[in-house]
Amino acid sequence: MWFVLCFLLGLCCAAVSGDFTLTVLHTNDVHSHFLETDPYGGRCKPEKKNRCVGGVARHLTVARKFRRERDNVLFLNAGDYFQGTSWYSVLKYKPVADVVKLLHHDAMCLGNHEFDDGPEGLAPFLRQLRSIVPVVTSNADFSASPVLKDLQVNKSIVLKLGGVAVGIIGAVTPDTKTASRPGNVTFDDDMSSIRKEAIILKKAGIRVIIALTHVGYIRDQEIAKLVPEVSLVVGGHSHTLLYTGKDHPQEDRSGGDYPTVITRSDGTKALVVQAYWFGKYMGHLDVTYDDEGDIKLWSGKPILLDQSIAQEQDMLDLLKPYMENVTAAGNTVVGASKVLLKADNGICRRQECNIGNFIADAFLDFFAGKPTSTRSAWSDVNGCLINGGSIRGSIEQSESVIRDDLLTVMPFGNTLVVVTLDGAHLWDLFEHAVAKYNPKEAGGAFPQVSGFYVTYDVSQPPMKRVVSVEILCSNCSVPRYEHLDDRTMYRIVTISYLYQGGDGYDFSRAVNAHDNGDLDLDVFQEYFKKTSPVQAKLEQRIKILSRSPGQTDSATCAGKWYTGSVALLLLACFFSMS
């Protein structure tokens, strides 16, 4: 902090004087998709190469072009380079560090997945970036972590562009505590941390202040509205494509305007931007500030990184030595899929998705196929509950799905855990799954299931949204669905991430938990082989009602209309015969 304050004193005279235009390039949630991918973030197949997008070699092409042709360019990253493909699961931090150093972001913040391998997995990455790429995160305290305490990242940095001091403050979601494995690292409230740091910068004469965040689109809008010192929020975490207009690829769903304009109570404006995920787009925003540091003008849109953009050869050369290890691990053909196993646009975080059904079926089938403890039971396990956030990609229709495709979907290396719990506890878990439900930005806790039918009314308050739960009987000779009973004990399979409290799930009341070390990816792969060619469907396992208070849902209204219409017809027939 002393270094930052001293630096600020030297920049006080460099506050905005006259209009100042800044070009901001930004990426987020790349998740180790270093090579170009198909439009959904899966493997780029040679026969469909003309549709392939993204890849960090294109990121470098665009960044270099803007830096050559324009002044006052900032290239930012909003976290989550770790996790998502074999590049990370096999090689961990090293290729990530090499890629980030060559891209040479002006600043990046940490995402929750940077903590997935604990402090031990993050520390060497931060050492590699020292003095090359500034990492800013204002609300993460490393002081209690023996591994990270000497690598504490800055809360903010100040860069001088065109004679103007620009402050950049970082923040990561406080949910990292439960969504990852940060060890003894603690996390403060994101907004209050940003505000505190912004006030320090403002007092030092910095007028242009950017929040670089990994907290999600909804939270970014709140920060833009309630932190008056910040004029621009460059975000990540929610994998939101912000896009004005409809000239983006049809497979992508826009979650809001680019930029999203927030008008505060004092009349000043702040802008919020985010650029989807897996590196398919690079955000591009031009912003003009007046001499008070308030935004006057803006323009720009996300750049689709398609085949029209060349790939920088030195980035491809950097990746080449790693390729043999990455491809050897993932090129085994596991089967075929007749359908698109769809997880793009975050649908598995908001509603039932066919790939979620398929994965949950795989886990339930694995245990249902084992010998049962009683002769009357067809299975010792009733159902499977996983979280939509654990599903990280789609699988296209293909006759040759390889292990790498599955790894893109399921990169975290979870084990399967069978737990015994009563119906009341299970009901509470389903309540928790949608406690923070938002159709535009649902969190990773949203459930995907097998052996259940669950109905929600999301117009009700949190923890009162479950309407009904039906569960597959296990101690029965003919499998059938029954209403969940509070006092009956059930056995379900889940993943180690959830059992350990990930996404806020609480299994503390469960008994007789068994984790035999069965890897989720291995079980998924065997089920894929067994059921190939895959034809996974949507089956209304999860129904979402959205009644307003005092309103009847559409199905009930339809039933009343039908009943009333029949009555009128009967009356008409009666009078015509009399």
UniProtKB/TrEMBL annotation:
> Keywords in UniProt for this one?
Hydrolase, Metal-binding, Nucleotide-binding, Signal
- Signal peptide from the UniProt entry: 1-18
Tell me which residues make up the Calcineurin-like phosphoesterase domain: 23-240
- Database matches in Gene3D superfamilies: 3.60.21.10, 5'-Nucleotidase, C-terminal domain
Q: Give the CDD domains listed for this entry.
A: MPP_CD73_N
Q: Which reaction does it catalyse?
A: a ribonucleoside 5'-phosphate + H2O = a ribonucleoside + phosphate
What does the record list as GO biological process? AMP catabolic process
Q: Which GO terms describe its cellular component?
A: plasma membrane
Instruction: Identify the residues that the record assigns to the 5'-Nucleotidase C-terminal domain, covering every copy.
Output: 333-506
Instruction: List the Pfam families.
Output: 5_nucleotid_C (PF02872), Metallophos (PF00149)
Gene Ontology molecular functions: 5'-nucleotidase activity; metal ion binding; nucleotide binding
What Enzyme Commission number does this protein have?
3.1.3.5
**Enzyme's top EC category:** hydrolase
State the similarity comment: Belongs to the 5'-nucleotidase family.
What's the name of the protein?
5'-nucleotidase
Organism this protein belongs to: Ornithodoros erraticus (European soft tick)
